[in-house]
Amino acid sequence: MSFRVDKDSLGDVKVPADAYYGPFTARAKEQYLVTGRKADWNLIAAYVMIKRSAALANKELRALDGTKADAIVKACDEILAGKFRDQFVVEEINSGAGTAFNMNCNEVIANRALEILGKSKGDYETISPNDHVNMSQSSNDTFPTAMHVAILLDLNKVCAAVDQLIASLQDKAKEFQNIVKIGRTHLMDAIPVTLGSEFEEYAYSISQARNGLLDAMKRLKYIGLGGTAVGTGANTPKGYRESVTKYLSEISGLELKQSENTFYPLQSKLEVANCSSALRNLAVELNKMANDLRLMASGPVAGLAEILIPAVHAGSSIMPGKVNPSLAECLNMICFNIIGNDVSVAFAAQAGQFELNVMLPGMLKCILDSTSMLRNFLPIFARNMIDGLQANDKRLESYVYRSPVLVTLLNPHIGYLKAAEIYKESLKTNKSIRELVLSKGLMTEEELDKALSKDNILGKS
Predict the structure, then answer these.
(1) How far is Cα 418 from Cα 391, in angstroms, rounded to an integer?
(2) Could you tell me the pTM of the whole model?
(3) Neighbours of 230 (CB within 10 A)
(4) How much is the pLDDT for 77?
(5) Which pLDDT band holds residue 460 (cuts at 50, 70, 90)?
(6) Residues β-bridged to residue 11
(7) Across all residues in the chain, what is the average pLDDT?
(8) Would residue 237 count as lying in a domain?
């Protein structure tokens, strides 16, 4: 491999000759060997959008030479089109405040802009990663802004995936709306409901969690770009905040706004923690639903067997014919990870000191891990699990009319204490509620038919 020698504030650094990154990145990539994973594309895109917007704002305000600004913008456009992704080599967890990743971006953009101007990589006298690409910026205001943009870009996809799942659940709710099943409280038999009502509740609770995500997204649209190192806006030309925010909104497609308090976006990570909490709340609802589906599908002989699940692959390597709720189990594990990620975000959000929270890369990794799992898996879960569910009608009906809990519906006719006696006798003798009530002459057959009718069971009479 051939090398060139770049120079930074610490001295000379050997850099691969064909690399677009520079000395800071070359040093950093040897230090931050943590996960083996490079930065998420959404973070790369968000950061490059910021650099592009800053160049345009600085050019507009006559702080940056137009030729240099145009070369920077063109380099950014090439990256956003998919080029040079392999040059973003700093890992997702890197230096405090993400300085290493910011410099990775600055150097890649600077060296590509140099080529655009017909110069050689490393000619930082012409275009400097710090003086020109990073003009009017600091890692301290750009990384928090890039976090918000990257999360928002991913959340748009998450919301689309959640909406697909909600639609599948609503379809099942409609399909199952007239199928009566035994209700359960404390995992014990309770007054009957419909299978459709259970799926309708899943759709509703997940919709409520989705609304929490939408609220979090609104708050993430407030940014502190232009605050530079501590929020004062040092080293920025007049009008920069408004200009750079305008350009970033245009390129990202997001309606971004400046925070009313310029110090808040650097010091507090409340909006990021709030977003993580919204993802956790969604995970809690998804987890509960997945648990219910696994219980309803248990069997087929020694379990509940209330629903039949589609076989996406063989359930066992040793037991032929076995079908497992594998996709629901996968969703459980995703939810556990999201809940754990939220704990990490909470610890990181409280770990800031004075004018800056430096735990940004760790926070962002956790949230983008959570969003990527959701956007990738929820469409599969909706399509290959929910859409293929079937009701086991005969089993559901047998549970309803065999359960002594039906005696609850007779309370208005025979009283709670007498109903309790019938309940106990039914369990002991294995006789039905109908059989016992009629044999004791407690109600007429007509009265019993009305009390145990489907409409009365579902509270419609």
Answers:
(1) 34
(2) 0.94
(3) 17
(4) 98
(5) confident
(6) 8
(7) 96
(8) no
